Amino acid sequence: MLKNSNKQLFLITGMLLVLFLAACGSGSDSEENTEESSGSSVNVGEEVDYTITGIEPGAGITVTTEKAIEEYENLDGWQLEQSSTAAMVTELEEAINNEEPIVVTGWNPHWMFTKFDNLKYLEDPKGVYGEVEEIKSLARKGLEEEKPNAYKLIDQFNWSVEDMESIMYESSDSGEEISAVAQRWVEDNPDKVSEWTKGVEDVDGVAIELVSTPWDSERASANVVAEVLRQKGFEVTITPVDVAVMFEAVANGDGDATLAAWMPQTHADFYEDHKDNFVDLGANLEGAKIGLVVPEYMEDVNSIEDIQAK
């Protein structure tokens, strides 16, 4: 009887040991599977159809993004969807509302960073998009001699990223034209305006043409400066054109000035082509930036190199 009891006890102990080891092995496999699952990155490329959502053809960031696709091997097979700034922001908003992945071309100043507080720039290890940029004012040769007061005001114009973005966001949020928002901004910021007009004399109907690009950021600066010039008696025309035409117009003397030259990276090619034929008045805004942008909920994507090749 004792022997049978010992045998049963031995069998029970053995079975429990086997079950314990099996449970440990199963848990270990489960943990390994979990770690593999959590460590594996989602193929963002497949989810966004290997497409970067961009803006207008010929824009500085469009040209730079085309270079990035060439420079980064992992972007091989990707395409840049070129449409318009409005279309890009619409697609971005839809993706954010549905918490879906999206990769867009982005830049500061832009009101989308005010509207959407969950955006992040992807790291750019190859430096294709450059570092922090500045927006410069350029004038045609001879403007200082022919229209010294306009030249002086444009030369003294300087503001911040926050100034520009506030106008852009208010216009977008209210549906009001940027020109009207810019006029109100000028009225509400007399101290800054007085710095730009220091030593500038009033004129009587002198014509001045500002050449710019059609982006909201440049529409904001052009309309602000135009309003201040008009208050000093100038008749101002704002001509929106493609960025290549903008540089050509100032270099050829077809336009008087521009406030929209992004340097040292975004418009570098255009600047180099015409640098001997215009006057560089320096930065009117510092702290600008361009690059590829994604929503922060895309946690596994923090660098351009995190994007999978096709």
* Proportion in helices: 40-55%
Radius of gyration: 29 Å
Alpha plus pi helix count: 13
CATH superfamily of the largest domain: Dipeptide-binding Protein, Domain 3
The total beta strand count reads 9
Overall average pLDDT: 88
Name the CATH architecture of the largest domain: Roll
> What share of residues are in beta strands?
15-25%
Using the coordinates above, name the CATH class of the largest domain. Answer: Alpha Beta
Instruction: Provide the domain count.
Output: 2
SS-based class: alpha/beta
Shape estimate: globular
- H and E string: HHEHEHEHEEHHHHHEHEHEHE
Keywords: Cell membrane, Membrane, Signal, Transport
Signal peptide: 1-23
Protein name: Glycine betaine ABC transporter substrate-binding protein
Pfam families: OpuAC
Can you lay out the helices and strands and say which pair or pack?
Layout: H1 2-39, H2 44-47, E1 51-53, H3 60-71, E2 79-81, H4 85-97, E3 104-108, H5 112-115, E4 119-121, E5 133-140, H6 143-146, H7 148-156, H8 161-174, H9 178-188, H10 190-196, E6 206-212, H11 216-231, E7 234-240, H12 243-252, E8 257-263, H13 268-274, E9 278-295
Parallel strand pairs: 1-2, 6-7
Antiparallel strand pairs: 3-9, 4-9, 5-8, 5-9
Protein name: Glycine betaine ABC transporter substrate-binding protein
Subcellular location: Cell membrane
Keywords: Cell membrane, Membrane, Signal, Transport
